[in-house]
């Protein structure tokens, strides 16, 4: 870590605290050369590997945008979507991997979306799981009625 004042590469940690619900660590540091103090914010990177093979940073906004389409015309607020995106990110981070497959992100969305709105869940699942027939919808609806927790057919 380089000092922002004298650019010396040695510093010691004076204090550490978690920030942003534990998603990052705030560290107070002191430069060993000039003695001045500065703050750093350390976060873990979370990347998503898409079907095409491209890798990009995880984005709550992209989760909200994708789910917003499924929730169109439903009584779901932006706050509900933000909370869902937060739950999805927490679920993915709990896996402990820095690189996750986009399929895992989709799976992480299904559970909270099912709890939020069943119609939006069916819309999202029909695209995500590539429903090909009415039987696929019927199976997903039967699972919802039974209170199942599995991935739709």
Total number of distinct structural domains: 2
Q: How does the helix and strand content classify structurally?
A: alpha+beta
Could you report the average pLDDT, rounded to the nearest whole number? Answer: 88
Low-confidence stretches: none
Describe the structure.
- Negatively regulates transcription of bacterial ribonucleotide reductase nrd genes and operons by binding to NrdR-boxes.
- It is a single chain.
- This protein has 153 residues and is α+β, with helices and mostly antiparallel strands.
- It folds into two domains: 11-43, no CATH class; 47-147, no CATH class.
- It is 44% helix and 22% strand.
- The strands form two sheets. A three-stranded antiparallel beta sheet has the order 1-2-3, with no helix packed on it. A three-stranded mixed beta sheet has the order 5-4-6.
- Helix 1 packs across helix 2, helix 2 (78-94) packs across helix 3 (102-116) and helix 3 (102-116) runs antiparallel to helix 4.
- It is elongated, with a radius of gyration of 21 Å.
- The mean pLDDT is 88.
């Amino acid at each position: 870590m380089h000092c922002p004042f004298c650019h010396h590469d040695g510093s010691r940690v004076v204090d550490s605290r978690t920030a942003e619900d534990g998603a990052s660590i705030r560290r107070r540091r002191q430069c060993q050369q000039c003695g001045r103090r500065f703050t750093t914010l350390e976060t873990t990177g979370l990347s998503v590997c898409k079907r095409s093979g491209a890798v990009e940073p995880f984005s709550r906004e992209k989760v909200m945008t994708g789910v917003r389409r499924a929730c169109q015309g439903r009584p779901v607020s932006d706050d509900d979507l933000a909370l869902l995106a937060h739950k999805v990110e927490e679920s993915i981070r709990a896996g402990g991997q820095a690189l996750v497959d986009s399929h895992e992100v989709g799976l992480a969305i299904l559970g909270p979306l099912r709890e939020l709105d069943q119609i939006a869940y069916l819309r999202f699942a029909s695209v995500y799981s590539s429903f090909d027939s009415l039987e696929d919808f019927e199976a997903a609806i039967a699972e919802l009625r039974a209170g199942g927790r599995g991935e739709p057919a």
